[in-house]
Design a protein that fits this description.
204 residues, mainly beta, 15-stranded mixed beta sheet, 1 helix, 5% helix, globular, Glycolipid-binding domain-containing protein
Length: 204
């Protein structure tokens, strides 16, 4: 069960945003990720609880940020309920999309579990609902993902398999690279792995 700490920063000006203390593990029904977010000043900033089924579909998502809350799952595309800080108003949304995304590294791993790409030059298109900080506002985004390279790196615990993905935002054409090993993000825009207590899980 990997557990560790990511640092999150603005990918453009590198302003520190939060630290995400996480643990995750594959299970009999899929994969689960839970985390707590702490601001640079030490305040609690939010939390992530994401569970996937064995096909990589989100069977449960619960996000908290700035007292806003989102609960969602893959139902008729993806469906969610977003609640305001006062708990008075709850709005429901539904989009014909494949999964969710957001600032947490969990969503990058989840997308790779959903797509199950093999190394090749061809890209796969995916539609996601992104919950954007600081109020978890939903936005539908279209991306394409390609697995460019898969390399084994020697470590004290045996070979570490690292996948290099190229992600393209289809509305702007902007591209970036994501490096993932198992269920841990090693590097991505705005994300740095600062601490890892145990090796990444190896998916079958």
């Amino acid at each position: 069960m990997p557990r560790g700490r990511y640092s999150l920063h603005d990918p453009h000006d590198h302003t520190p945003l939060a630290e995400e203390h996480f643990q995750c593990a594959p299970g009999p029904s899929g994969w689960r990720y839970v985390s707590q977010l702490i601001t640079p000043t030490g305040d609690h900033h939010g939390s992530v609880d994401l569970a996937l089924d064995e096909l990589g579909r989100p069977i449960r998502l619960e996000l908290h940020a700035a007292s806003w809350q989102v609960r969602g799952a893959a139902i008729d595309g993806v469906t969610w309920v977003r609640t305001d800080p006062a708990g008075i108003h709850a709005t429901e949304g539904n989009v014909r999309a494949h999964a969710f995304t957001g600032t947490s590294p969990a969503f990058l791993v989840a997308t790779t579990r959903l797509l199950r790409l093999t190394p090749s030059g061809s890209a796969t298109r995916v539609r996601l609902v992104a919950f954007t900080d600081p109020v978890l506002a939903p936005r539908t985004v279209d991306q394409s993902w390609a697995l460019l390279n898969r390399e084994a790196h020697g470590t004290d615990n045996g070979p570490l398999i690292v996948d290099e993905y190229q992600v393209t935002a289809l509305d702007t054409g902007e591209q970036h690279t994501v490096h993932i090993s198992g269920d841990v993000v090693l590097a991505a825009p705005g994300i740095e792995l600062e601490d890892l207590e145990s090796p990444p899980s190896v998916f079958p």
